[in-house]
Amino acid sequence: MILVACVAGICGCNQKQSANAVKAQSAGQDDYSWIRGANYVPSYARNDVQIWMDYDSNTIDRELGLAAGLRLNSVRVFLQYAVYKNDPERFMKNYENFLSLCEKHGIKAMIVLFDSCFGEFPDLKNYRDKDWMANPGQNMLGEEFWPQLEKYLEDVCGKFRGDKRIVMWDVMNEPMCTSFASTEEGREKIWKFLSHFLDVVKKIDPTHPQTVGYMTSANIWRLVDKTDVIAFHNYIGDMNAFRKDVRFVKSLGEKHNKPVIINEVARRETGQHFWLFMPVLQQENIGWYFWELMLGKTEFSRGDNPIQGVIYPDGTCKDPREIASILNFYPASRPDEQRLHGQINDTQQAGFLAYSSGWTLWKGSGPRGNTLHYANQEGCEAELNFSGTKVFLVHKTGPDCGIAEIFVDGKESQLQPQIDTYSADVDWNHKTLVADGLSPGIHKITIRVTGRKNPASSNTYVQIVGFDIDTP
User: Fold this and answer.
1) Does some domain include residue 168?
2) What is the CATH number of the domain that holds 260?
3) Alpha carbons 124 and 82: distance in angstroms, whole number
4) Which domain holds residue 248?
5) Separation CA 212–CA 175 (nearest Å)
6) Distance between CA atoms of residues 275 and 173, nearest Å
């Protein structure tokens, strides 16, 4: 795991983008390219049933705060009919609370009403032991169940007509992601169900746009005339193929005069990394929701090698490159600006500081902020992404300290290619100038442990307290 030591939160930008979105919607000109979103399953929930059965307002409040710190302005969340049916009053109360928390953090909600994944009818007794469950389940697609499902939609959609906390209805997630799709009869039953409920949702609430979260772009044509926004998913690791697919869907959008968004993307397992596809989405000017925000209990985000999820509940992350890509290396903020909740602030100015494996966090009196990271294994790195022109490394010097190499933007520092941090006496907060005269924009400083030392030193430790950054 890599520890994120400091990430700047840009919540004010969040709220500004949301305000612009509302203005665009009212003018009828919204292309939804402003959406910077994540699929959100609270960290306590293993599945969509548990989101609502074990609804935890405090956890959701904290985690939506993390989303706001990442400059996200929308989350995609899955409702669950079975939980609604079990206790409609409690479900609606929690649903309203969720929307109020979104509003608190300047975030709009995309609400998923039905979901084919993965076909199993929801289990309200053993749900904590189950992975993802469908909504309402493939055994409830028949017309005999439609009246009760329409009542559900009257509550979850009709009571929120015109509600600006909701960006759009995703009427069904991945219609073909079910065993029903293996037969022609099953496929037709799904399309009939979806076609009917697209009509129902539009009748109940014509104020919000509606979409369908298609598993691939191949199925978009089926009901494109009944959707207001074209949405698709893509987990392809080949960026040329990814860009080609994005452009194909955009061409469909132009043909049908409909905006396009991608509401599922990002998967480590396929090599679809944030730093590869995020620039493509930016260049193509398309709104997005990655899967998924939290490293929690879903089958996608749990364990030592999760294929998805970016932030742990304590505010740390698995890979700082992902966070940096989501933030798009947003220029460093002032020290008085809000920071991502739960992070260790060991930079004097805002930057993005991350440590590779092999570093140990030490706390005690002496270093600034009583926080220091140390390592003596060759190759261990600390990386700072920042906006500024001049950088000082704040580090310990002492009788057990070794030699560090310095790189600026991937190249050996011309100012200070290496530092011998040995001294006979301890200085916890020694400052060494490692970069100066940098051009405006985003830069990267890398500190690498060499495993070498001054002959007088007793060890090879490199011990980092933080950085001081001069901004333009």
Assistant:
1) yes
2) 3.20.20.80
3) 8
4) 11-327
5) 8
6) 26
Same domain, 291 and 392: no
| Average of per-residue pLDDT values in the chain | 87
In the chain, how many domains are there? 2
On the CB side of 172, CA atoms within 13 Å amount to 34
Q: How far apart are CA 114 and CA 135, in angstroms?
A: 5
What pLDDT is attached to residue 29?
Answer: 61
N-to-C CA span, the chain: 33
Contact 323, 310 (CB under 8 A): yes
Q: Return phi, psi of residue 366, to 5°.
A: 125, -70
Mean pLDDT for 218-237 is: 96
- pTM of the predicted model, to two decimals? 0.69
110 part of a folded domain: yes
Q: Are residues 107 and 158 in the same domain?
A: yes
The number of residues making up the chain comes to 472
Q: Report the alpha-carbon distance of residue 229 to residue 353 in Å, rounded.
A: 38
Structure letter (DSSP) for residue 294: B
Which tens digits make up the pLDDT trace of 289-339? 999 999 999 999 999 999 999 999 988 888 888 888 888 633 222 222 222
pLDDT value of residue 471: 54
Which residues share a beta bridge with 170? 112, 211
pLDDT tens-place string over residues 333-374: 222 222 232 232 333 333 456 778 788 888 788 998 778 899
Which tokens is 275 given?
């730093």
Claim to verify: residue 308 and residue 440 sit in the same structural domain: no
